[in-house]
Specification:
31% of the residues lie in helices and 18% in strands. It is an alpha/beta fold. The strands form 3 sheets. The chain has a 6-stranded parallel β-sheet. It has a two-stranded antiparallel ribbon with strand order 4-5.
Length: 266
């Protein structure tokens, strides 16, 4: 089975990953991947926003690290990208980032349901004790829908992230998903199958099969990502992700080059 591109990988510049891009590329070649993309956490407009992303001054360094991997592994297609946090009101900053380099794609992700709480941050896990989980899910999908509707992203990342620590969705979950997927379809935006969920408390790929089947019925395309934070995680559990995608009715995924999409079989 040929494996699809791994479009979600990180670098040490985000301050919570290990291994240089050349090491990620080396592992990708070793396991038979033909294409990967680096999509490290983008800077925020304020460098002190949080402590798990690169600073604005490190963008040049990030790009050069990816370019070095491209030079050292010409047999591997390597894309240059960012995982960009979506916060309402931050659209101008995202447009500014987009203009700085010839990116291949942007992954739009929602980690924050408020300006001070990232729902997946292990350091802020205790915050869940003070929140109504159903309200968190609703706030999350509201922002995810805004992200998809913004037209700023080629891909939406880990589309049911609140389940990371085992908090399962509320009864009105299908309605929340449908609104989000309608926005993604309207903007021609893909969603990713992110295998990192299998390494978290939820023990499930992002998104769930239910979301994926609904996305397929609506014609929303997909990508694949390991969310690798170490070289050995590149392409991890892709066989399971491919099976999930095929069982949901998919046979193609997206490839991106300079923010233009083409479809490829997997």
């Amino acid at each position: 089975m040929s494996l699809p591109p791994d479009y979600h990988t990180h670098t040490p510049l985000c301050r919570h990953a290990a291994g240089e891009p050349v090491e990620y590329a080396k592992h990708a070649v070793a396991i038979g991947l033909t294409e990967i993309g680096f999509s490290d956490h983008s800077p925020m407009a304020r460098d002190d926003f949080d402590n798990w992303r690169m600073n604005s001054s490190q963008l040049d360094e990030y790009v050069e690290k990816v370019r070095k991997a491209q030079r050292d592994f010409p047999q591997l297609t390597i894309r240059l990208a960012l995982e960009v946090d979506y916060l309402p009101g931050g659209e101008d900053w995202i447009l500014e980032l987009a203009a700085r380099y010839p990116w291949d794609y942007f992954i739009g992700s929602v980690h924050y349901v408020s300006d001070s709480w990232a729902i997946d941050d292990p350091q802020k896990l205790s915050e869940w004790k003070h929140r109504n989980a159903d309200e968190v899910w609703a706030a999350y999908f509201d922002r995810l829908t805004q992200a998809a509707a913004s037209g700023l992203f080629e891909i939406i990342g880990h589309a049911d992230l609140p389940k990371k620590f085992g908090h399962r969705p509320p009864p009105d979950y299908p309605a929340l998903c449908e609104k989000f997927l309608n926005a993604a379809k309207k903007q021609n935006c893909a969603i990713e199958l992110n295998t990192a969920g299998l390494r978290k408390d939820c023990r499930e790929i992002y998104p769930s099969r239910a979301i994926l089947e609904l996305a397929r019925r609506k014609g929303v395309p997909i990508t694949f990502g390991s969310d690798a934070h170490a070289p050995g995680e590149v392409g991890m559990n892709f066989a399971e992700a491919v099976r999930l995608a095929r069982n949901a009715g998919y046979s193609e995924c997206c490839r991106f080059c300079q923010r233009k999409r083409e479809m490829t079989k997997f």
